[in-house]
Structures are given as C-alpha cells and as structure tokens.
Amino acid sequence: MEAVAARAGVAKTTVYRRWPTKLSLVIEAVSQTITADLPIPNTGTLSGDIRAVLHEFVEITNRPSGRAILKLLAEGGSDPDLKEALRLRFLEQRTTNLTMMMERGLARGEVRADVDIELAIDMGVATVIHRLVFMEEPLDHEAADHLATLLISAVIAR
To answer: What is the CATH number of domain 2-155?
Structure first.
C-alpha cells in the first residue's frame, strides 16, 4: 500500500480510504483491465458467439492482468472474502453475459428447449477454471475450439 501511495503521490491514508485492504485494491486494479475486455459477442449464431467468447478469453488469460485473475481464483478457495469478491466482480457478470448468449440461441431455435442453460454455462466455466487454475494448463485456441464444439453439441437443437 505504501508503494501505491508513493507512486500516486498521495498519503497512505488516502489509499486506505478508497481501498481498506490490499485485497480490495488488487481486485479493483485487475478488474479495471478485465471488465473492458469481455464484450458480449453477437455473431448471429450460438456457435460463433461461444467461439468468440472462448477465443477472447484465451487472449485475456495470456495477458498479465489475466494471469493475475487466475492467481486470485487459485487463492479464492482459502479466503471467503476473496471468493465472494471474485464471484461478484468477475463470475456473476460473465455468467449473465453467457446466459444472454444462450437465450438468444434459444430464441433462434439453435438451443434445445429442454436444455438447462445454467448447467450448460456451469459446464463451460468449470472446464475453463479447472484447466487454468487446477491443472495449470494453458487455454490455447485449439483447446478453445474443442471446448466450443463440445458445448455446442451438448445444447444444439437437432
């Protein structure tokens, strides 16, 4: 916090007024870069939208800010405050965006009516988090395409 205050040219108390903990400062700093990076794609097809989201996520996770988020996710299991902050700051908005994409696909007749949209989204998100955080394997464009194919085949109307 002292280094942040010094770099900003303000007193340490000023930093603490805005961010009462180091954790809140880190989450705010990282979220500023991540939030702008995930627009909701609208390619006209669910397949295109899912692929666009996953390929953009590949790019994000290869940036320093993306790697910082992954480290926070890895630490989130042991810190309830961090876990809640990450859920509210990152996962909730992305889940809302993915739900909108799936509902557009449903409205276009691309998604089966019996699909549990929430569960389908959980499958995709959990797979990505498992691979990046727990297995510590990168998500590259080839893996993103493979995951997109699996997700699409699970929900597509035949």
So the answer is: 1.10.357.10
What's the pLDDT band for 142 if we cut at 50, 70, 90?
very high
| Contact status, residue 37 vs residue 60, Cβ threshold 8 Å | yes
Quote the CA–CA distance of 142 and 137 in Å, as a whole number.
13
Residues 63, 54: Cα–Cα separation, whole Å: 15
CA angle 133-138-144, nearest 5°?
Answer: 105
Cα 90 to chain centroid distance, Å, stands at 6
> Buried b vs exposed e over 43-61: b needs ≥16 C-beta within 10 Å?
eeebbebbbbbbbebbebb
Q: What is the pTM of this model?
A: 0.76
